[in-house]
Amino acid sequence: MNHKTISQPIEFKGIGIHSGKEITMTCNPSTSGSITVINSKDNNTTLPLTLDTLAESHKRATLFKNKFTYLSTPEHFLSACAAYSITSLEIHINGHEIPILDGSSIEFCKIFGSINIQEITDKPLSPIIINTPLTIWYEDACIIATPAAKSIFSYFLSYDHPLIKSQSHTIELTESTYINDVAPARTYGFKHEVDHLIKQGLAKGGSLDNALIIGDDNYINEPRFTNECARHKLLDLIGDCWVLNRPIIGHIIGIKSGHHLNHLFTKALATSYS
Prior knowledge:
Blueprint: E1 2-6, E2 10-15, E3 22-29, E4 35-39, E5 45-48, E6 62-66, E7 69-72, H1 75-84, E8 89-93, H2 106-113, E9 117-124, E10 128-129, E11 134-138, E12 141-146, E13 151-158, E14 166-172, H3 175-181, E15 188-190, H4 191-199, E16 212-214, H5 228-241, E17 248-255, H6 259-272
Parallel strand pairs: 4-8, 10-17, 13-17, 15-16
Antiparallel strand pairs: 1-9, 2-3, 3-8, 4-5, 6-7, 11-12, 12-17, 13-14
Helix pairs in contact: 1-2, 1-5, 5-6
């Protein structure tokens, strides 16, 4: 395996789901073997998207260098990078959030799929190969890694809610399965939680155009899959794991996990497979 990058610059424009501000993000080819962000709002300070800059967070992923240099909600973009095995980019951005676009990763995938993804032939990459089972717990949630010949991701969730109940989804991580089965799944929220966030001055960019909203006994907008919630959690899990910037050969199973546990899991993987 070798590191991979894009063949030409690409641009994404959209709002930040928390700030509500318009954000422009330009991704440039790089041979560095890493994904880094240069933020014009922070005097062009460089922030590497690595495990070392990953901040503790329960509700969203955040990369953090200091109180002025940080980046929120990278997980949908990183999830798309994982699908295309992109490990080397120089990103220029004018805000502290990755644009939410439609709340999924499909728009990132459409652009990646429209250009060439190039191998960096002189920069080899070693995948993480799960050779012994690993289980990480947080409260009643866990992530299990087991040996497998391919890269497989599963997710299981359960809510005491008449619409959601229990959901699950499993894919072998390839470009085609990711694009068809996972990429269109949007971030979701329960209406009472969204109302609470709005009262706190958060989720300023959230709307029915970029999230699946769930009422007490109905969907406020139409779901794209019957198990869209599980598929989106799977999308997040894949994205959170890509902060390691290495493919994983094995079966990763998330059970009710969120960003906090996902991050604990990536740290455990880095310790076990450095």
